[in-house]
Amino acid sequence: MNPYALLFLVAGLGVIAWLTGRARAARFGAASKHRLHSLPGQHGLYVAMWTVIPALIFVVAWSIFTPSLATDAVLKAPQASALPMFGYERDAILNEVRARAAGGDYGFYPLAEQLAPVYLQASRFYGWLGTGLAILLAFACGAFAYTRVKADFRARTRVERTVMLALLVASLIAILTTLGIFLSLLFESLRFFAMVPITDFLFGTLWSPQVIDPADPGATLGAVPLFWGTFFIGAVIAMLVAIPFGLMSAIYLTQYARPAVRQWMKPLLEILAGVPTVVYGYFAALTVGPAIRDLAVSLGFTYASSESALSAGLVMGVMIIPFVSSMADDSIAAVPRAMRDGSLAMGATTSETIRRVLLPAALPGVVAGVLLAVSRAIGETMIVVMAASGAANITANPFESATTVTKQIVDLLTGEAEFDSPKTLAAFALGLTLFMITFLLNIVALRVVKKYREAYE
Amino acid sequence: MQKRIRKRYRAERRFRAIGMGAVIVSAAFLFFLLATMIGNGAAGFMRTEVALPIDFKSAPLEVDRAQLGTRGADLALAGAGLENRVKTAATAAFGEKGDELIAENAWTAVRDAIKEDPNLLSQSAHIWVPASSELDAAADGGGEPELRARVQQLRDRGALQSGFNAGFLSRADSTDPTAVGIWGALKGSILTMLVTLLIAFPIGVLSAVYLEEYAPKNRWTDLIEVSINNLAAVPSIIFGLLGLAVFLGTLGLPSAAPLVGGLTLALMIMPVIVIAGRNAIKAVPPSIRDAALGIGASRVQVVFHHVLPLALPGILTGTIIGMARALGETAPLLLIGMRAFIVTPPGGVFDPATVLPVQIFLWSDEVSRGFIEKTSAAIIVLLAFLLAMNALAIYLRNKFETRW
Question: What is the ipTM of this complex?
Fold first, then answer.
């Protein structure tokens, strides 16, 4: 049976269960002398939960196991003796059997064409079996819950306990996601490091994934140019733009600006953060890149590229200004007014107060903000994909092009992606490195704030 | 002494000027960016059209009139050689390279005109057809000089006009920049956003409720909180890798489907919703909870009947901001396969699709000049949507936020 139809059916049974449970509870309430503990609707909800939830779990588990049961049936068929014992061809034939049973009509193996009807029949059989069992389970559990509905039955407590369980499960999804990210990256990276020694990857200086020598794949998969490019564009050039502008904007908006100006300028800076990075990348490729190239040519660098590290870094820095600005803003505003007023009272000008009193006091927060901004810049993808090229150079010249870890991840995974080649798996190794570095930066940022923040109150 | 004071005041004024300069430069950059996009993209919403004289009276088209009112009209007209007729008419009207002046799909405009008014088949008329992208560029002032001369010629004859390109919003992707539209990408974006909302909102809100109201203060709770805060700072491309490895690899879901895109984006914005939700729930004063408990409500009833409705505006604001962020995301969706050339808009959440930012990215790679203005026009549409969403969030926050 179509899985959606089955889900619909189970949901319908749930509604019927709710109505009958509610009716029974109402009858009890009318008949008995003392009042019900819970509302009739809550009794109904109790019966409905018992009907729907076990059946739903069963349907999900059954649909996971059906393909293997059907495959077993195929393997027991007489034609299956012609199947190779193991290996790539066996898997390919079995995959084609499944594809044909799902409705495709083309393929390479005549054996698969013969086995497909067997698979189809087996999966249909198991499908109907599963439907029957699910409905039976729904009725059985529903009946069990129905018999428990009485006047003094604590339905509401049980329903609420289930709700709390659902809340807990929802929260665990966050841990599950983090674990999922880490494990999937780790798993694929381990497969990569089985092919390429980790020292070649981390310390090699030649990155040229188009030419991979199957005997020594690590020779052209050295990631140092990528690390350097990421550092150069993200942590050097972008920060050279973002920190001064962000910090000075925060200082001006908190200390000097009139409230009316601050009310308008803060949202304006937030808009800078809200523009999609694809727009920044397009702008960098269209306008900033050629302008920088013209500048470089006029300065004497004849072979300047229009996809320079400077153009990508510049635009990235502008994108990050709001992050630095808002963290600095929060930390400066958190310094007690008494310190500022005391300094002004002693005759210092506002700029001296800021430089000598406020900034040192707010420094942990500002540093944390900078670290978080660096973490954001390192992970930024689209600006680099559109504005920088794929040339893996180690250069300190901002007018030349460099590439970053994120751009290479995108490039490696587009195009023919056979899942087992060192090229595709290198992307996961790069992803793992990126994840660990940003994770570390975030933890260090939090530690800095916690450890060095002085308690003033 | 006075000299020193003057020096200090000068330093003060300099410092203040630097601060103001920083703010002004940042704002100026934003305006420069917007101005460039609007300047490039405004032309993308317009389309140049050429008046093509076509004569069906002296050389009638062999087509079955009865078919014209039915669904077979397109096929009938195509089969009668309408495309070639249009090309020869262009050459006859505009000279040797006449058919290069009209777009490749110009014959569909003639076909639609005939379907609307079948009497055209017995007349000789002027039909407005879309111009080719080179002529379009020349009409806007760029392009080759000889084409610009042609444009002037045609304008003098009254055979050239520029109009609003309604097709941009209703057509899907194409290789010809004059025929291209964003509807396919828009529909993909809408479907993906729907899936993201349906998954991220319940999980995010329920997690926020649990962490704020019910979680005991132990190591497990700390672990959950640390996970959520870290997830909020993970680069978006890592979520793309997760989607590729788990959703496409392990679970075998169809590649480039809005379902997979929605799942990936939901995992990405869930921490944003949780953090916003926690702040909103924290802002509800304890007196409300105590009062509810005092009249006998259970803990679940306190939260779902009293606290959550009061925290809802804050939660909605956070959700809208998260959705706006998801709308502009490109990198994770590139990794799950949404970078193919999709000609038909997706029918459901399992069909291959693309989203608007990815469409912008794909068009930015195109060589043909006509795509620059189309890409900028698509950027304008995207920015308009984001502006609307953020404005809605700010409006909700200002209207419904109560100060306790």
Answer: 0.86
